[in-house]
Specification:
Distance between the termini: 30 Å
Strand content: 25-35%
Order of helices and strands: HEEEEEHHEHEEEHEEEEH
Shape: globular
Number of helices: 6
Helix content: 25-40%
Strand order of the largest sheet: 1-2-6-3-7-11
């Protein structure tokens, strides 16, 4: 949509991204020694809004929850769009902090992973250095996904190691392995050894009741 493209132009293109032939946006941050990172960080820029444009939000400062305002619901907003703008926000922050990785802002995830499936089928060389792919595109605040679309995509050993590291950094980040449904990283399961998805704090996605725990995003 025009709004999605305006969002990309304002928040993502200034990061110096490269657009591939399949609509995905890429940004590489090398390791301290200049070598390519083995990490792929993933999110998607599209949402399931029925209408273009801006919407009014409501924020609860005592809980850190953001949701659609009553005005937005009355005027046709059908979702908040934290799926997956929360993931986009996290990745923008990581890039600005210089955290190593291959960052992919995917095209068309909500239409069946258009950009990621095309990249996996036709641009495997874009992913050749990767050993781990983690998406920021899961509801809730405590899931590390180890299976998607009915197939195992990440090992329990890997998932628990991520959970332990998150808890070490911040004890409020209490994650455990569980099964998921679908996000872009499942398309890389035959190419990258460990493909997962992390909870980023939204709930009730794709509905007018969608909300986001902003404090969790910041953590």
């Amino acid at each position: 949509s025009d709004t999605e493209q305006a969002f990309i132009a304002r928040f993502i293109e200034p990061l110096g991204v490269t657009r591939d032939p399949w609509g995905n946006l890429h940004r590489w941050v090398t390791e301290d020694d200049g070598s390519p990172s083995r990490m792929v960080w993933s999110c998607h820029t599209d949402t399931v809004h029925r209408h273009d444009g801006y919407q009014r939000l409501a924020y609860q400062p005592k809980t850190g929850i953001v949701s659609l305002s009553r005005h937005a619901k009355r005027h046709g907003s059908n979702c908040l769009g934290a799926d997956d703008t929360a993931g986009v926000s996290i990745m923008i922050s990581m890039i600005r902090q210089g955290i190593p990785g291959h960052y992919i802002f995917h095209y068309g995830e909500e239409h069946g992973g258009i950009g990621s499936s095309d990249l996996a089928q036709h641009g495997e060389n874009w992913l050749e250095d990767a050993q781990i792919a983690i998406a920021f595109d899961r509801r809730g605040t405590g899931d590390i996904i180890t299976s998607q679309a009915g197939q195992t995509t990440a090992s329990d050993t890997f998932a628990w190691s991520v959970a332990e590291e998150l808890a070490r950094v911040n004890p409020l980040l209490a994650y455990t392995p569980t099964a998921g449904i679908y996000t872009d990283t499942v398309e890389y399961a035959g190419i990258i050894s460990e493909c997962s998805n992390l909870s980023v704090g939204y709930q009730f996605e794709h509905t007018t009741n969608e909300c986001l725990d902003v404090w969790h995003v910041l953590r």
